[in-house]
Amino acid sequence: MYIRLVDICLVARIIATHAFIQNYTVPRKYGPLSKIIINEESRSLYIGGKNILLHFDLDLRQKNKDIIGPVNDSKQCNSFDNSCIYMRYRTVNNHISILKSFRNFLIVCGTARQGICYMYNGSDINLKHHFVESKKNYLGSGNSSVMLVTNHTDGFAMFFVGQSFDGRKADYFYNEFATLDLPSSKTNWNFGHYAAYSHLSVCDTKRENFKLKFLQIFEAENYIFHVFIRSINDSGSISYETRISKLCKERNDYGSYEEMPISCKTPTKFDIGIAAHYDVGQQKLYMTFGVRAYNVDNIQADSTQGSVICVFTIDKMIKKFASEVLTKCFKGTQTWGTPSWQCNSTACPVASAKEKLTSCGQTKLYGIEARGNGFSNTAVYQISNELLTSVLPLMNSSADIILAGSNTGFLRKILVTSSQGTSYVKCDVSGDRNIPVCNEMVLDTHSNLYLLTGNRVTKLSMTSCKLHKTCGECVTSNDPLGCGWCFDHCSTETKCQLNMWHTQSCPPFVWGISPANGPLEGLTKLTITGENFGSMVNNATVSIGAASCFIQNINDTRITCLTSRLGLPVRAAVTMNVTDSTSKPYKIDGISEQMDILFEYTVCDIFVNYYS
């Protein structure tokens, strides 16, 4: 039976700044938000963070939430053993480490209470039940966890899991790599062993010093792939490398496990993975990489070295596994053998000429680890002084576009050509250079992007030109959408309701004037602020209605001019006409279109007061 939880009041706010962007912000104590999945059939968005699980509709209206922490916890105690003395005095935050859809349910595993998993009702997340207290149900890791839910050819569900050791007792830690199934139940949820040997573990004596961080897990061509960063111990010298592993999906053991390095080059080698996404439709793996930060003793990329994006096709990857791992191994290549993190590493034997070895059929070794360069592609995009923390291809587009978030809170749209990628949109989505874009982003079928920054979830239309916030950004973007400037926003021509659409140039913009009035005699020194004024007096004119204002000083954002003499009082718009091809990356051309900036010519009355 499910437990119905008492509803806890959560103060939050939704901010709809424009039709193309929406933000929902939760209290800071629940950030950072880190996990997100979408179910378009039920029009649901599920988001996990620190001590919280949230359920939204696709318009970011909150439907429900579950507060899951802080909790009393200890790595030395059973999940719910409140009699354990270590648990009484230690309160910890519970970060959601795994968030996956399963039929009409959600599988949620936190980092607290040994990482025990819960099964939630997808329609009402106040209905949940924790799994049986067993280490194969402790899948949430304080370092990293990944899960892939798929189906066997016989129809039953299979769960492929990767988790990093996070310091808990061996009694509460399952395996780094495992395949599980889930017997039917709605009361006692309990993962089962897919087969007796459907797991692979780091040796107990090596686990404490072996560092492992999972980035992604995906299925392709009846194989399961894990992407992770791991430590490499070469004669006592520790280094870090990103690896990709391949596993035959339906084999009953992990003997088919193969592992090799994966990296990106510019030609400089970038080998610390940051984010990864596998696109099923294109059968491509998108990854961002950085360079290791050598001044810290952990798996971390150095932001000062920048980062890159690489795209790997699955067919080339499988061929590389065959040539780089399997073939070289059984030719007796030195240092090739079973994974070095196993208890008993074995070198690859030389196969006889008659033996025909395949990944899923070989039984000579229980897993193979390759060294060397492994699989490396040339970067399609490179950026300096930022780390690209998330990556996602934009589908339903005639162009090859990649979306990438950064550690400084920006979202970029990158147009990839045959030679290189070019960023044509840079949108500030976090508003804070210390708040990164989370590595998980999702798109719906209408090309709306959902992303996480700190304690905020943002929905952005990827088919809107309004991501370009200034006229200059708009007309120089070369956006495949065909964007141009429409009075006060960037738009496609069909959506521009005014006859003011610019694609090759920008007009001047008048934002304000001071003073707002002056005498009919003229000679009022008028200061005008705005943008796109150019830099040459001869290239600009200022008018107040039909009257001229004679320019004294000019720069791109500020002009001073002297009003001319008029015969009658009048209140008229201040406009500018500029033609300048040299001061900006784009041409400034036209008349300012803001008709609400008004200057008033007034009659100066003299009042004389007589006192008796």
Describe this structure in words.
The structure is a single chain. Among the domains are: 471-502, no CATH class; 505-602, Immunoglobulin-like (Sandwich), CATH 2.60.40.10. With 612 residues, it is mainly beta. The chain has four helices and 49 strands. Helices cover 5% and strands 44% of the residues.
Main attributes of the structure:
mainly beta; 7-stranded mixed β-sheet; 612 residues; 49 strands
Quaternary structure classification: single chain
From the alpha carbons, calculate the radius of gyration and give it in angstroms: 31 Å
CATH fold title of the domain at 505-602: Immunoglobulin-like
Largest sheet: 10 strands, mixed
Average pLDDT level: 90
Main structural class: mainly beta
The shape is: elongated
Indicate the CATH class of the domain at 505-602. Answer: Mainly Beta
How much helix, percentage-wise, in residues? Answer: under 10%
Contiguous runs where pLDDT drops below 50 for at least 5 residues: 1-12, 606-612
| Helix run count | 4
Layout: helices, strands, pairs:
Elements: E1 3-4, E2 13-18, E3 21-25, E4 35-39, E5 44-48, E6 52-57, E7 62-67, E8 71-72, H1 85-88, E9 91-92, E10 96-102, E11 105-110, E12 117-121, E13 127-130, E14 145-151, E15 157-163, E16 177-181, E17 192-193, E18 199-200, H2 204-207, E19 212-220, E20 223-234, E21 237-248, E22 258-265, E23 269-270, E24 272-279, E25 284-290, E26 307-313, H3 314-329, E27 368-369, E28 375-378, E29 381-383, E30 388-394, E31 401-406, E32 410-416, E33 421-428, E34 442-443, E35 448-453, E36 456-461, H4 471-475, E37 483-486, E38 489-492, E39 501-502, E40 505-506, E41 509-514, E42 517-519, E43 525-531, E44 540-544, E45 547-555, E46 558-563, E47 570-580, E48 587-591, E49 598-602
Parallel strand pairs: 22-27, 22-28, 40-48, 42-49
Antiparallel strand pairs: 1-13, 2-3, 3-36, 4-5, 5-6, 6-7, 8-9, 10-11, 11-12, 12-13, 14-15, 15-16, 16-17, 16-18, 19-20, 20-21, 21-22, 22-23, 24-25, 25-26, 26-29, 30-31, 31-32, 32-33, 34-35, 35-36, 37-38, 37-39, 41-43, 43-46, 44-45, 44-47, 45-46, 47-48, 47-49
